[in-house]
Amino acid sequence: MKDEKLYSQYLKEKFPPKEGFVKRMELLLGKREAKEFFDISYIKTPSSIRCNTLKITVQELKSRLENYGWKLRQPFAKFPEVMIIDSKLEPGELGKTKEHLLGYYYVQEISSMLPMLVLKPKAGDFVLDLCASPGSKTTQAAAMMENGGTIIANEISLGRIGILNSNLERCGVMNTIVTRKEGVALCEKFLKKTQFRFDKILVDAPCSGEGTLRKSPKTFQMWNINMIKKIAGTQRRLAEAALRILKVGGTMIYSTCTLAPEEDEMIVDYLIRNFDIEVEKIVLPLKFRCGVTEWEGKKLSGEVGKCLRLYPQDNNTDGFFVAKIKKLRDKEGGR
Q1: Orientation angle between helical segments 225-244 and 183-193, nearest 10 degrees
Q2: Closest Cα to residue 45, out of 310, 330, 332?
Q3: How many CB atoms neighbour CB 290 within 10 A?
Q4: Using an 8 Å Cβ cutoff, are 307 and 265 in contact?
Q5: pLDDT in tens, 212-230
Q6: Which terminus of the chain has fewer CB atoms gathered within 10 Å of its CB, N or C?
Q7: What φ, ψ does residue 120 adopt, rounded to 5°?
Q8: 3-state secondary structure string, 169-183?
């Protein structure tokens, strides 16, 4: 414990937050809670895994891992496949077991599991994972679908496709087609060349990563308001392109691992104003904050209040943002 405190202090001194970042978090949370946010950002998240039910039952995996002397906790009765390891493990130990190599579990932070828990893909669905690598959410979807239905897992980077394919193979995923194309271009091709529309879509958009500070303190150095504004344009284009190839009545999850309203609620607000959609309420067994409905003097649609913000200090997780969107009609220009 003493070593952990010393290391946390070392990180604070090596990677101090930029003044602009501090001010924004204080605006979002207030000074006291902003301090809590920054304090926990220098403490590593607990190790968590997801049982891959395509290959093993939850109970059998739990028994196997407990035989290693690991202390496991299943925090959500509704999602027993989610496990937290309370034991102190050696560096790399989590990924070196034969159970991991055989694809019996996937090392995945709890916040990363949320989009699929909200999307709820099932056997028979046609699902698009627009920004899929490294495959944590794709493999999770395949397990929830029991390898039924079809998943299109898209990734633009050839190197990251290699990682994606490796994880799909290790986890025994058999219902997934991997594509390599820029996300907007892929959606436009579906729109122009086919009449096909997806039942469910995940847009887990590339982002500034403000929620990942606990595993990547270097993000403190990379933080830049201009980068946030630039990447928000990419996120908007991905989200609106995906929405156009969603079936009427279908569900799209827009999620990020950042807490910047420009990349979160303001993207959803844009969709509300330009498409005939409904933002649906989300119920999950975690402490969440409602979406921000006003930011830097700009009032957003009250609907974005149904979006969920996950702050690391609330549940000892990474930070995350999730919006659940239902398409009402194939009509653009708002309601």
Answers
A1: 20
A2: 310
A3: 12
A4: yes
A5: 999 999 999 999 999 999 9
A6: N
A7: 55, 60
A8: HHCCCCCEEEECCCH
**Ordered alpha helix ranges (H), the chain:** 2-14, 19-29, 31-40, 58-66, 98-101, 110-119, 136-144, 158-170, 183-193, 219-222, 225-244, 265-274, 312-315
Q: What is the mean pLDDT of residues 226-244?
A: 97
Integer Cα distance of 39 and 23 in angstroms: 15
Q: DSSP secondary-structure letter at 281? A: P
Closest C-alpha to 222, from 15, 9, 10, 41:
15
Q: Work out the end-to-end distance of the chain between its first and last CA atoms, rounded to an integer number of angstroms.
A: 55
> Taking residues 140-161, what's their average pLDDT?
97
String of b and e for 14-50 (b: at least 16 CB within 10 Å)? Answer: ebebeeebbebbbebbeeebbeebbebbbbebebbbb
The residues annotated as belonging to the active site are 257
Structure tokens at 80: 């027993």
Q: Which domains does the chain have, with CATH numbers?
A: 111-332 (3.40.50.150)
> How many Cβ atoms are within 10 Å of 190's Cβ, its own excluded?
19
Q: How far apart are CA 95 and CA 74, in angstroms?
A: 19
Alpha-carbon distance values, 285 to 241, 254, 304 (Å): 31, 19, 20
Cβ atoms within 10 Å, residue 189: 13
Q: Can you read off the two tokens belonging to residue 52?
A: 């891959």
* Predicted confidence band of residue 155 (pLDDT cuts 50, 70, 90): very high
In this structure, which amino acid lies at residue 86?
Answer: D
